[in-house]
Amino acid sequence: MSRISLTQYLIEKQREMGIIPGELRLLLEVVARACKRISYAVGKGALSDILGEAGSENVQGEAQKKLDVIANDTLLEANEWGGHLAAMASEELDHPYEIPNRYPRGEFLLLFDPLDGSSNIDVNVSIGTIFSVLRMPEGADEPEEKHFLQAGYRQLAAGYAVYGPSTLLVLTVGDGVACFTMERETGSWWLTETNMRIPEDTKEFAINASNMRHWEPPVRRYVDELLAGKDGPRGKDFNMRWVASMVSDVHRIMTRGGIFMYPRDKREPDKAGKLRLLYEANPMAFLVEQAGGAVTDGAGRMLEVRPSALHQRVPVFLGSKNEVERVTAYHLQG
Ligand code: AHM
Ligand code: MG
Q1: What domains are there in the chain, each with its CATH number?
Q2: Residue 58 pLDDT more than 80?
Q3: What does pTM read for this prediction?
Q4: What is the DSSP letter of 221?
């Protein structure tokens, strides 16, 4: 059987009732190319100067790793000249990145977390890139920060790359979720899963349990019930996994189901949780819903949250539908 490349997959999506416009296809190919470059940099590890701290901080006050900066620059440089984008926004940049005047501008907005799971870089554990594509609002002229503040259901495409034992690209253009594996020798992306599906039920959950004392009552109740196992109200044992790279934790759920939680935390003044809405929660929510799972912020559907700031944080409950619905119901019960 002949293999299907990323290009062929995207061209077929373009042909099938124009699911994606040609310009979007070209943009996604550039993003994939940038992820390939990041993958090569990650793969070199200590053999090139990519490990350790960069000596700077990002807008959220987090220390940047060298690889955060390299991945961010790689995505900006690969995407700025193609003519498909109006602007880009990144976890590593305070404000949106304007396309330099010397290049043509397009109609799309690209948002990304260039290197997710930064705490895992130096210990050789899987990390990744998360991205989301929006369209400039109709009638908008010069791209501004407010144009990025669109609800997640408006995304045209979303995906992540995992830099793990193999490098994968998981992508949705709103027509299911496909997974591509990078062939290291040639740098080609080959379709290795056509329609990823998340089972509705699961016996596996993912949460950073060291924060337990800071959780709100609905999350404590839900996790306590899981931990009680077969003798508790759930009547079955649950297993726990936590990689601390959202891409890896979500990829496991995309592959075999589970629930991932990064809840509110009463330590934080706005109690919003750790993860960012526009370039972490929303792209993952688009992918997970397209694979038959569910994603909420505890109160309602993630993809309907109205963003108020570019780097806004949000609680995240994501994965197997019946579990996400249960923990969300516990929130609604107060
Ligand atoms: P990052 O984008 O700065 O790497 O932070 C996000 C990461 C997620 O990948 C992961 O789910 C979470 O932070 C882990 O947090 P913790 O260190 O609290 O377990
Ligand atoms: Mg991140």
Answers
A1: 6-193 (3.30.540.10), 204-333 (3.40.190.80)
A2: no
A3: 0.96
A4: H
